[in-house]
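Notes to self after the Tuesday call (sharing in case useful).
The group wants a holo model before anyone commits to mutagenesis around the pocket. I volunteered. Ligand is zinc ion. Logging inputs and output together so the record is complete.
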Amino acid sequence: MSSLLFRGLLLRSVLSTESNKKYFLCALCVSAVNNSFLLNSYSIVKFIAQIMEESLDRAIFLDRDGVINEDRVDYVKSWEEFRFIKGVRRALKQIHQAGIPVVVISNQSVVGRGIITEADLSVIHSRLLKEVQKSSSRITKVFFCPHHPDAHCRCRKPRIGMLKKAARELGLDLKKCFFVGDNLKDIQAGNRAGCRTVLVQTGQGKESLKKILTGKTRTRPDWVCDDLSAAVPNILAFFKENP
Ligand SMILES: [Mg+2]
Ligand SMILES: [Zn+2]
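Result:
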């Protein structure tokens, strides 16, 4: 009994870090073989395997400007200019409670254009992560492309460099992920990478939808939603139905 209690405590402390999960799983297998709690340990192992599966291969990718915060024609240049779109913090909390990682994928040519430095951008992003944490949720990581559009880099959306990097670093299966964006470049990147895509109507979303409806583009999102807070319950329901 005390051994089980110990394991429970160990489980809670060790599972808090992603990289330790595999190690702990192996340790538990060894312990299962070495003692008489074979059946019990087996069910714990199965449970942990499920957690690993859930937390490692699925994620929701979010574009930043026009999805999380109000877009600005003159770019967001400081934290003072960063305005959360209504309902976003609550939506992020819902995703967090469902155990799904949130990963931001953002074109920030504002750096490549020489308007702000990469250090200025880091300040904005660290404030963003802190603010989100304050409302008991989490953004796992922010990936950004700092390059000028003329640089023709591999990371700037609609290219999929950032998505591939995120998948590699975080152990994600892109086919199981969603990409939520307001610009056609987001939808193109998401589609190319094999994600399910959601076009929101905040930011540049209305113009993007107009281009689709008037035949100016052949790009098609899987879904169109009003905003992030409308998209999230649908995405979470989809995950639930398609484990
Ligand atoms: Mg955007
Ligand atoms: Zn780039």
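Two things stood out.
The longest strand covers residues 102-107.
The domain at 58-241 is CATH 3.40.50.1000 (Rossmann fold).
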